[in-house]
Amino acid sequence: MALNDLSLSVATKTIVGLIGPNGSGKTTFINLVGGFYQADHGDFLFNGNRINGRKPHEISRLGIGRTFQETRVFRKMTVVENLLVASPNGISGQSMEKARYLLGFVELSHLKDEYAGNLSYGQQKLLEFARVLMRDPELILLDEPAAGINPILIEKLLKCFRTLRDERKTLVIVEHRIPVINSICEKVIVLDHGQKIAAGTPEEIRFNETVQAAYLGAD
Amino acid sequence: MKIKALDNILRPKIYVPLILAAFLGAIPSVTSNSYVIHLLIIILFHAVLSESWNILAGFAGQFSLGHAAFFGVSAYTSTLLFISWKTTPWLGMFIGAGFAVASSLLIGFLCFRLRGPFFSLVTIAFGEVLRLLFLNWGSLTGGPVGLLVPLMGDSPINFQFLSRKPYFYIIFIMMLAVTCVTYKIRSSQIGLYFIAIREDEDAAQSLGIDIIRYKLIALAVSIFFTAIAGTFYAQYLLFLHPDSAMSLNFSVEIALPAIVGGMGTICGPLMGSFILTPISEFIRALLGGGYAGVYLIIHGGILILTVLSAPSGILEKIMKSYEAALKKMPGG
Questions:
Q1: Is B298 part of a structural domain of the chain?
Q2: Rounded to an integer, what distance in angstroms lies between the CA atom of residue B202 and that of residue B242?
Q3: ipTM topping 0.85
Q4: Which of A150, A174, B163, B244 is the most buried (most CB within 10 A)?
Q5: CA–CA distance, B178 with B181 (Å, rounded to integer)
Q6: Is pLDDT larger for residue A179 or for residue B13?
Q7: HEC profile for chain A?
Q8: Is B188 on the interface with A (CB under 8 A)?
């Protein structure tokens, strides 16, 4: 069982980090919330409404956006098309304007007509992130956004997260890089073997013995 | 708005295909060679079919190997309506298309929920079941003897002409229609949805795209054009047989021009048809009836060469030099 008896809440307009050793159930959690997996029992509430059993596209339309652990850009579309496909307003002047703004936001404007498959891995991560923002979701689930990308692009990504924090968006970030979590998250939740083992501020989590044991072994 | 339309026409990407289409459309008025016109009809016929298939397989990524079955459903429907109730094939064409689209949607509805090769396998199975059914249902379809369309002479209302030229213009208009629809799809949000589904279904869903709905739309549009070409086929050849109109071989023939020319492109299937159809026609003419399957071997060879040298289709290779040439043209 990937997740068992897990209960957690994310306050609106906060940035929450979800960490844990490999196999602890972080991505499973995102897949469950996003509707890609169905829970055997239990409830997911979003803005007070139960979202269990809904299909992924319905959940997206409710205002929950997500990225994937491995980048999932549409490789044979151009960069700007990758954003337009996500627009709820179709291909319109308004959508183009928003796409232009978001490409500027993630600093990919110069690549707008390039095929997404030709971008570097890090640039694809940025594009995937911008694509999620195209739908203007209330809650954004980011699955290892900084994995496999160089420090310069990580800085770009963090800059974007900080801007979103200032815009009072709700973000849940699954990440292995603790400095990334420490620098932007207000709250951190730690999973191990599908269960929540700790929750608190980054500072509290850093010195939590249960967390240290989960990462380093009980001995 | 008018100025914008004029601006578009002045772009070589628009006016060069328009000039080519006008040139193609003018050929029957400058030649009376019946074989040349027949060859063009067959090329355009395959272009219509492959372009239709391309909407579903090339853009939306749903690889059908049973298009011939839906083609046959429409061809038989319009022909049986014509024989039994004297319904004009112009109307029968749309009734047949309705049946074909309805049956395809039923299959799509059941299969599109599953991932993997299920849709391809089910379309093959559906095609074979239908072919065998039509082959053995002699009282309705003529069975292995085939079905002859009653001759009406030069009768435009009954979709019959003594000259080949009207057939040419009908299939030419069908080709323009399916190409325009494909172009319109590609440049719209729905086209982006199709490509997103082809590229990554999970990512598409995560962006709010109802993938089953859009796969069904792609299927319906694709089968509609395939089906109307079915009625054209029946009225042009005036004969139907399940082994030729509904076989798996024919489904593969429908797919090949798009694969060779370039799947998921607008002009790839047209180009593929202009390459493959003359080759098979010349081989058939050259070798006669004794070597009926040789053209399939040649097609196979071309397919292998294409996959090895231009996996995305010949069009992509040609487009690079074509686009370089376009830039040197007025307005480019």
A1: no
A2: 39
A3: yes
A4: A174
A5: 5
A6: A179
A7: CCCCCCCCCCCCCCEEEEECCCCCCHHHHHHHHCCCCCCCCCCCEECCEECCCCCHHHHHHHCEEECCCCCCCCCCCEHHHHHHCCCCCCCCHHHHHHHHHHHHHCCCHHHCCCEHHHCCHHHHHHHHHHHHHCCCCCEEEEECCCCCCCHHHHHHHHHHHHHHHHCCCEEEEECCCHHHHHHHCCEEEEEECCEEEEEECHHHHHCCHHHHHHHHCCC
A8: yes
| Whether B202 and A72 lie within 8 Å, measured CB to CB | yes
The residue type found at B316 is E
Closest CA to B263 of B54, B21, B34, B8: B54
Q: Is residue B263 a part of any domain in this protein? A: no
Q: Cβ(B215)–Cβ(B255) under 8 Å?
A: no
| Domain count across chain B | 1
Whether the CB of A16 is below 8 Å from some CB of chain B: the reply is: no
For residue B240, tell me if it sits in a domain: yes
In this structure, what DSSP letter does residue B116 have? S
Rama region for A144: left / alpha / beta (φ>0; ψ in -120 to 50; rest): left
Domain assignment of residue B105, given as a range: 33-247
Per-residue pLDDT of B63-86, as tens digits, reads: 999 999 999 999 999 999 999 999
Cross-chain CB nearest to B189 (options A57, A74, A90):
A90
Q: Residue A76 and residue B203: Cβ atoms within 8 Å?
A: no
Q: Give the residue from chain B lying closest to A141, CA to CA.
A: B206
User: From the list A55, A74, A91, which residue is nearest B203 (CB)?
Assistant: A74
CB-based contact, A78 to chain B, within 8 Å = no
User: What domains are defined for chain A?
Assistant: 15-73+137-216 (3.40.50.300)
- Each residue of B16-56: pLDDT tens digit? 888 999 999 999 999 989 999 999 999 999 999 999 999 99
Rounded (10°) angle between helices B89-111 and B118-136: 140
Burial class (CB in 10 A: 0-12, 13-18, 19+), A3: buried
Q: In terms of pLDDT, which residue wins out, B299 or B235?
A: B235
Residue B204 forms part of a structural domain: yes
| Mean pLDDT, rounded, of chain B | 91
